[in-house]
Fold these 2 entries.
Entry 1:
Amino acid sequence: MPVKVPDTLPARGVLEAENVFLMEEHRALQQDIRPLRIAILNLMPTKIATETQLLRLLGNSPLQVEVTLLHMASHEAKNTPAEHLLEHYVSFADVRGQAFDGLIVTGAPVETLPFEAVDYWPELAELLDWARTNVFSSFFICWGAQAALHHYYGIPKHPLAEKQFGVFPHRVNARREHLVQGFDDVFFAPHSRHTETRRADVLAEPRLMLLAESDEAGVYLVQSTDRRQVFVTGHSEYDPGTLQGEYARDLGKGLPIGIPRNYFPDDDPTREPLVRWRSHANLLFSNWLNYAVYQEVPFQADVLPAEGGRA
């Protein structure tokens, strides 16, 4: 089944060209199916690119998904046209009284700042508290994962000596968990961050499980013991050329940046990147939609179990 998205969303043309199954709003209304209601809080400056990346992965599932795009009203987006936000996004205040089957919170380029120094932190903290009771399963990415781990569990982020940048091999620690069902013994995922979540901090919190990690990139996939929160420190959603674009951007700004590791063949940035994370990304998102959301959520989205419980 497809993702239901507005007919005017820029991602539609890109994904239709890739043969990703999308559905027009008028056709979705004719089907006697309750779609999964997924809210995406998009904190990335490149909002249109991030929308496309996430919708591509949400569309690779037999489940019908209805997406609501959210932005922080307390932050002025400088890299996305105001018309796009007005037409396709709503604020947290607009959905505060609603319930969602799932929530995705993206990364953001603010990781070197203390959490409380981020201009929209009070609004984000309020949204995270709201998600405890109004969202069945939450999926946090990169800085979004660090922010949620800090807010919910007091886990700090730590600065790295140099940027964790590239595509890294990972291993599964908890093979019987549904979220990692079908993962290869070694799987790859991109990382692009200046800070880290440390293994010891995760293992010291009894309400969390460390599901997958990397010898090079560290903690990757963490899940709450009630299985309603997922934290991913990397960027499995990235397009083939995203790291390439970030590398060129930082070089152009004169920033200290190394060639992204395990990305260009023979570490030669003049060659096309080698993509080794597509299958993992699709499996991670489809497992989340199926096992953490669809299989567990009550039929009525507005009847959610109390925090810490399961349907």
Note: The first strand starts at residue 3 and ends at 4.
Entry 2:
Amino acid sequence: MSETIVAIASPPGMGAVSVIRLSGMRAFEIAVSVMRGGILPKPRRVGLRSIEDETGRVIDEGLLVTFKGPGSYTGENVVEFTGHGGIMVTRRVLERFVEAGAAPAGPGEFTQRAFMNGRMDLTQAEAVMDLISAQTSMALRSANEQLDGRLGRTCEAIRAKLLGTTAHMEAFIDFPEEDIDPQVGEVLCKTLLELSTSIAGLLATADQGRILREGVRTVIFGKPNVGKSSLLNRLLGYQRAIVSSREGTTRDTIEEVVNLRGIPLRLIDTAGVRDSSDEIEREGIAMTHGQVARADLVLVIRDLSECLVESAKVNIPDGARKLDILNKSDLEDTSWAEVKGLRISCESGDGFDDLESAIAELLSLDEAHWGDHSVAVNARHQACLTRAQSSLTRAIASLRGGDDPEITALDLREALTAVGEIAGIVDTEEILGEIFSNFCIGK
């Protein structure tokens, strides 16, 4: 991390302003070398400054602010220049900083440096990307609480208890002539069971974490012309899919995200299911069945305006939930009188408040159900916690079975390592590469 890095920290494309960020030992020196007048504003004070090319010609004028390490985002000296948001001018200012000695930053390198310099733990570093990607209020709240260190503190409390228990067990290994007193062994077992319960509580949030980050995979399923695309458009609030009375209009899947009471619903409009001789339509129908197999929720929609017939069969996968929706309630045929289902009209919007309530209740995913449990583990945390849980289970069985203390201690060390990986306390070179490769450049 000896190099001073630079990157555009604002979104790509044209805008009102752009932000270019430098971080490293030479950040102040490089900024002075390309700046007219060569005087930096005081740390955390904004100054109007011009960036010049090698001939002294002004490239751009904007606001420059400095942050002296270690009291900066990365823990290093940081310079941020806010200039005009044109594509050409922004790129030229970036090139000027590179010409002066800065190296282009890789994805997530600023946040990686913040982690390496002790400004945040690994869970907080991951929360930065969650915060940027948040699409709903619940996802935003979860990311903020993780960024505040809530998950890291919880894992550190588990690790501290586990460390004490491991030290206790290894004391018996150092003094083999001392047998583990049955009463002491039971106390150790009780502690390990409490830790196992705490880990189980975190693991229980994994599904919530996936939903917050990826959304509820919600497949709209039905025969042609029952209103699948109309339902998608109505939930989105604008026309995203083509609506036509001609059967087979939708042949490929259409995917969009909608915010339902703070929870992201990843809506997937699919091809209508029917027997078809059209090769392309058959391929679309095959994709529909594939989407249903991976769904968290299937919205099965039927047409009330037609005479009641047996609806298309669908096999709902284990874990997925189904909601029966009856569309065109304003045109209901009398044959549907005894059929239960949520009646709506995509044309008029009738019943959509009830539909939102039914989805929220079915999934138990609104803010009232989630309460304070808004910090949810991601897939990496889940893998670490699962390993820790397995190690603790073996350690408890070993302790109760009177096995050699070294066997128990080995399991405890494995659990300790697994929990430590969550916050990045142990060697995490491979983990870092995986995490920060998913970041945007400039963050």
Note: The CA atoms of residues 36 and 411 lie 62 Å apart.
